[in-house]
Design goal:
This protein is mainly alpha-helical and about 575 residues long. Among the domains are: about 260 residues, no CATH class; about 70 residues, no CATH class. Helix content is about 75%, strand content about 5%. The protein has 23 helices and 2 strands. It has a two-stranded antiparallel sheet with strand order 1-2. The chain is elongated, with a radius of gyration of 31 Å. About 50% of the residues are buried.
Length: about 575
């Protein structure tokens, strides 16, 4: 009964967010403040605002959250009450971030999202990988949030206000402006899993697939892109901050795309893809132009549709097959069994991958082209940052097409014999006969799970045409060629049964191992030293004092014999000793 109530409440709240977005559409921008208090010359309080960006993000959050809540009705039954309660709170926290016009009010939603993500990623707490993934996500995002908090104070004190709509870059000294925006950027990097705080997001995949869809598509990681878009005038006023953002974004998009090309688990590929696609949005924002901001937000919306769709499709694979690793799925794909048994999932996942890869006609094609176009115009004006962004996005587009085609072929089509490292992975994880598995019980998901897939698949196509479809045919032709340059090698390798995964890519450049050696090991050693010092030094003194008291009490106890003669003799000896001592002192 409680679980049902929470499910209804969760779906109802998500639909309410969608309704709110619809009601606010076309309303004149407005702000409202409440619970204000004065501290010296500063006014600290809460404030909300409505504008075009608010409506856009509320629509994205509401639609994705509704799809996730409905999908979860058929997907998850273990600890359902707490799950739906946390998803609803997670959604409410993102809504708080979206409607905030106060940096402190925004901080509340920002931190509540972090706490909810920790609890949701660790939903299957009995699994060690889920517990470790939740802890890693919490610690790495909290590390970035330290800088975020200081950035709020620097900008607020520098501008004399904590109201977002009242932050005037001209009223803030250049040093404080750069310092404040860089500190905020630290929080954004942590929340959106950008280099060097990127490793937590792929390791958060043991959480439920609907949670992954919500985190990757509409909340948490998308909050970083939204924040910079909300404070765009402030960020763009600091050239240093925008340059740092461009470098971080370009390094991240290439790094994450290369990692996705080597991953063998569906959800891990999608996780690295999210890191890469978010970096594309940040690179567009780093241009500091109106066109760049528009391109970033357009790609944010289309990404929410196709990435939410892909994670929900991955959830169906997990739900029906029991694993999202290519090599385990392969036993069902020797004769294309998954494609035939999971027809709706196959079609919708194909649409999602095509949109992610930027295939012409799908939403991702149009939004990615707007980023390339914005970078090209900025580079043509002589901007070095524009050229760096343009080259990085083009390379990433080709890499994206490669891993999308690779995953699509390996999961859904009859696969040739595996070779190399992937075959070794298969040997380690094989649990059944791969040639003739029992597929009699393999069925597509129930309608309550398929309905959100169909809706998001429609959005992954239609959203590309909502923006007016203004195409630069030269850029569109170039992006199409990039898709082919990425997809054809993946097809060629698959058809020959080859799946090259260089050691460097397979180990994700060794960043996780390096972080473990640089941070985890020293902290563990320090913890052991602290425990040893507390146990052997401080504890030794405490135990020694107790032992001394025990020995003293045992000695005094032996003097208590109960013999009166002994007591009198001791008293006389004591008196004589005192008399002798007094005589010595007196002389």
């Amino acid at each position: 009964m409680i679980a049902t109530a929470w499910r209804v409440a969760g779906v109802g709240f998500s639909l309410l967010v969608v309704l709110a977005a619809g009601l606010l559409y076309g309303v004149s921008p407005d702000q409202a403040a409440f619970l204000n208090s004065s501290v010296g010359d500063l006014t600290i309080g809460f404030a909300v605002r409505t504008d075009d960006l608010t409506v856009l993000m509320l629509a994205v959050v509401g639609v994705i959250a509704t799809c996730v809540q409905v999908y979860s009705l058929g997907y998850l039954h273990q600890r359902a009450a707490s799950y739906h309660a946390l998803v609803t709170l997670f959604t409410a926290a993102m809504v708080t971030v979206v409607i905030s016009d106060s940096l402190f009010f925004l901080l509340i939603g920002w931190e509540v999202m972090g706490a909810c993500s920790y609890l949701l990623i660790g939903h299957y707490w009995e699994r060690r990988d889920a517990r470790s993934g939740a802890i890693k996500a919490f610690l790495m995002t909290r590390l970035g949030d330290v800088g975020f908090l200081f950035g709020i104070f620097v900008l607020g004190l520098g501008a004399g206000t904590f109201r977002i709509s009242e932050l005037d870059p001209a009223a803030i000294s250049p040093g404080l402006l750069t310092g404040g925006t860089l500190l905020l950027l630290v929080g954004v990097v942590g929340k959106s899993a950008q280099v060097p705080l990127q490793t937590w997001l792929p390791d958060a995949m043991p959480g439920p697939s609907p949670v992954s869809a919500l985190i990757h598509a509409a909340t948490m990681v998308a909050a970083g892109v939204f924040l910079i878009a909300r404070l765009y005038d402030v960020f763009s006023a600091s050239q240093t901050t925008m340059t740092v953002l461009a470098v971080v974004a370009c390094v991240t998009m290439l790094f994450a795309a290369l990692c996705a090309m080597a991953a063998v688990e569906v959800k891990r590929v999608l996780a690295w893809s999210t890191v890469s696609q978010l970096a594309i949005m940040f690179s567009a924002l780093s241009l500091g132009t109106t066109a760049g901001r528009h391109a970033a937000l357009f790609h944010l919306v289309t990404h929410a549709a196709f990435k939410g769709l892909l994670f929900l499709c991955a959830g169906v694979l997990l739900h029906q097959v029991g694993s999202a690793a290519f090599v385990v799925l392969r036993r069902y794909t020797r004769r294309g069994r998954l494609r035939k048994a999971l027809r709706v999932t196959f079609v919708t996942m194909t649409i999602g991958l095509a949109s992610l890869a930027g295939v012409p006609g799908f939403a991702g094609f149009f939004s990615k082209d707007t980023v390339i176009e914005a970078a090209w115009h900025h580079a043509r004006d002589g901007s070095v940052v524009g050229w760096i962004v343009l080259v990085s996005v083009c390379l990433t587009a080709a890499f994206t097409a490669f891993y999308c085609m690779r995953m699509w072929l390996w999961v859904f089509f009859r696969t040739p014999a595996l070779a190399g490292a992937l075959g070794a992975f298969e040997d380690e994880n094989a649990t059944a006969d791969l040639d003739e598995p029992d597929t009699s019980k393999l069925r597509d998901a129930p309608w309550v799970m398929l309905a959100p897939l169909v809706l998001l698949a429609f959005a992954a196509i239609a959203l590309g045409y909502v923006d007016g479809v203004h195409l630069d045919w030269v850029i569109a032709s170039v992006s199409t060629v990039l898709v082919l340059l990425g997809a054809l090698p993946a097809y060629s390798l698959w058809s020959r049964g080859a799946d090259p995964r260089p050691v460097l890519l397979e180990r994700e450049f060794g960043v996780g191992t390096a972080y473990h050696v640089m941070f985890v090991v020293p902290v563990q050693l320090l913890a052991k030293l602290t425990v040893a010092g507390d146990r052997d030094v401080i504890g030794g003194y405490v135990r020694g004092a107790g032992r001394a008291g025990t020995l003293a009490s045992q000695g005094f106890r032996k003097l208590q014999t109960g013999n009166v003669q002994t007591y009198l003799t001791a008293a006389v000896v004591g008196v004589v000793a005192l008399a002798v001592l007094a005589g010595v002192i007196g002389s």
